[in-house]
Amino acid sequence: MHINDIGRGNHQTTHVVSGRRCLACDAIEPVAGDEPIWPLAWRCPRCAHVVPQAEGIPMFAPELANTASGFDPNAFDTLAQFEAGHFWFVARNRLIVGLVDRFFPRARSFMEIGCGTGFVLRAIAGSREWDRLVGSELHPAGLVHARKRLLSKVEFVQLDARNLPAEGIFDLTGAFDVVEHIAEDEAVLKGLRAATKSGGGTIIAVPQHPWLWSRADEISHHQRRYRRGELEAKLHSNGFEVMFSSSFTSLLLPLMMARRLKLGKASAIEDIYEFRLNPAINRLFRSVLEVEVRMALAGVRWPAGGSRVVVGRAV
């Protein structure tokens, strides 16, 4: 029996079954602390199914790899080039890391669903000493960049977020602007709960407000923008207690609304995210969002904004 004390207080729960899950037969195999969760060429001890691999990465959904499923894999090169200096990505990282530190100070294992180029995962990796970090992604094109950013610190795996091959392994899980790309978003949340230890948690970021829907969402392959309260309700129905919920990009919302009105002819990801902003404007926007993040971490709950960030505790 595993006794887990992850959260902020002395909450303790038991979790009996944990390990890697075979997608062919649902068998659960325990994972030793010094071994990868998914060793290369892993064979299920019950049904003998072998997980294929490509370039050192286990492939649980190879038929979907680098397809235009939920996201255009050709966009990863552009994201990797501009994320590190872009006001929105930098501020969002500060918010995410701040929430990890605040709500899960004892967490030592983390898995990110849809880690993309590894920009968020690198920030989380540098925030403390972790025993286990995993980056998952449907598209190996993103993992090419993620492996360069994180070198040997992280275990990478290719998988379909709707069918996670893990049970009760992680203190903390996260998906940052990912579940809106997936029609079956509750399948992802259900899988995250299964992969998360009881007493641990998850952090989810999504685009917010259906009335902000624009050409940008279409190019980004979004299935939806979330209504206020929608993500919280879905997390609750899939085994999470909501601990924190706030909008993000609130102070810049009027500018975002104006920008959306001009995106009718946008045709590329560069146009959506304004990667080529004037440096002075980029610095100004970054300063504004840094103020917003500090206030959110201090207790302010922003009612409206381009995104919604929710923290859930696994119950």
Structure description:
It is a single chain. The chain is α/β, with parallel strands linked by helices and 315 residues long. The model is unreliable at 1-15 (pLDDT under 50). The chain has helices spanning 76-82, 87-103, 119-125, 140-150, 185-195, 215-219, 230-237, 253-261, 269-273, 279-297, and strands at residues 2-4, 13-15, 19-21, 28-29, 53-54, 57-58, 109-113, 132-137, 155-158, 166-167, 170-176, 196-207, 240-248, 307-314. The longest helix has 19 residues, at 279-297. Helix 2 (87-103) runs parallel beside helix 3 (119-125) and helix 2 runs parallel beside helix 10. It contains 10 helices and 14 strands. The chain has a single domain (56-314), classed as 3-Layer(aba) Sandwich (Rossmann fold), CATH 3.40.50.
